[in-house]
Amino acid sequence: MEDIVIIGGGVIGTLIAYACSRYNCNVTLIEKENDVANSTSMANSAIIHAGYDPRDNTLKAAMNLRGALLYPTLCRELKVDYKQVGSLVVAMNDEQCAALAELKARADQRGIVVSLIDGDEARALESHLSKRVVQALFCESTAIVTPWKIAIAAMETAMGNGTRLLLNEEVKAITKLADGYEVESATQKIKTRMVINCAGLYADRISAMVNGQAHFKINPKKGEYFVLSKRCHELVKHVLYPVPTAKGKGVLAVPTVHGNVLLGPNA
Ligand SMILES: Cc1cc2nc3c(=O)[nH]c(=O)nc-3n(C[C@H](O)[C@H](O)[C@H](O)COP(=O)(O)OP(=O)(O)OC[C@H]3O[C@@H](n4cnc5c(N)ncnc54)[C@H](O)[C@@H]3O)c2cc1C
């Protein structure tokens, strides 16, 4: 019997495997794709957000803040890129400036160092910003990473410590036993004391396998980006956000650690 089965090899599952592999326990990670980080963790904006955006009193706010503080050390340990480029949330009118003031208050309350600067100061930092930008929230600690490299390095380290990785194995059923669970995939039946559900967009389906019905439902959203050539790297130096809305963070301009520029996502 395993101690822990982790379902899903995205950035969350692989980092949990990495953390568990420090302890004396038997861990198996099961992934349905042919490699780790082949889903959402492979293709996103790759930003370590400072943590002022999530709403107050949410788990996301607490985890974002804590995660952002852990990332520099984590990336050093895993020997993967971590580039602190800073960010600007830009406002073009009074209503958006009021939203920036709210973000600033939230950042102050959470101990995140930010400053409100005017349009000219913003253009001094980021010369291609529109003349229409009248104010910006500058945050020095925003960073960019290579998410799939984090997952691969975490998994490789965990495997070096004895964690087992099963690829091309989609979990189809989970049965409750007296002292744990039996996790069933195409070719495997594994008994385990504990299951950790890291199945990303499919986490509700995994939950339903145990509980009959998940207590949450995931409504997935997909985004697309333009990836600009490295010749454009001078155009965008910081992570540039519009003022966030109820629908999300909006379309960003983001430098990548490899020297490209991402424009997106749409939704
Ligand atoms: C457009 C976009 C931009 C984003 N930008 C950022 C950003 O800049 N910064 C940030 O922090 N976050 C960002 N995110 C969010 C971030 O990408 C996700 O929160 C993160 O990748 C989720 O990781 P995960 O490990 O939970 O899920 P995933 O990466 O989806 O991993 C889940 C894994 O579970 C596997 N799986 C599913 N079902 C089964 C099954 N039945 N059996 C076996 N395996 C299974 C999947 O194949 C997958 O590999 C963005 C997301 C999107 C969509």
Describe the structure.
- The protein is of the alpha/beta class.
- It is 28% helix and 26% strand.
- The protein has two domains: 2-43 and 148-211, FAD/NAD(P)-binding domain; 47-145 and 221-264, D-Amino Acid Oxidase, Chain A, domain 2 (2-Layer Sandwich), CATH 3.30.9.
- It has helices at residues 11-20, 59-78, 94-109, 119-125, 147-160, 203-211; strands at 2-7, 27-30, 47-48, 82-84, 87-91, 114-118, 135-139, 143-145, 164-166, 173-177, 180-184, 189-197, 226-228, 239-242, 252-255, 261-264.
- A hairpin with a 4-residue loop joins β11 and β12.
- α1 runs parallel beside α5 (147-160).
- The chain is elongated, with a radius of gyration of 21 Å.
- Bound molecules: flavin-adenine dinucleotide.
Summed up, what is this model?
With 267 residues, this protein is an alpha/beta fold. 28% of the residues lie in helices and 26% in strands. The protein has a six-stranded mixed β-sheet. It has a four-stranded mixed β-sheet with strand order 6-7-5-14.
Please state the CA-atom Rg, rounded to the nearest Å. Answer: 21 Å
User: How many separate domains make up the residues?
Assistant: 2
Poorly predicted segments:
none
Structural class: alpha/beta
User: Could you tell me the number of beta strands?
Assistant: 16
CATH class term of the largest domain: Alpha Beta
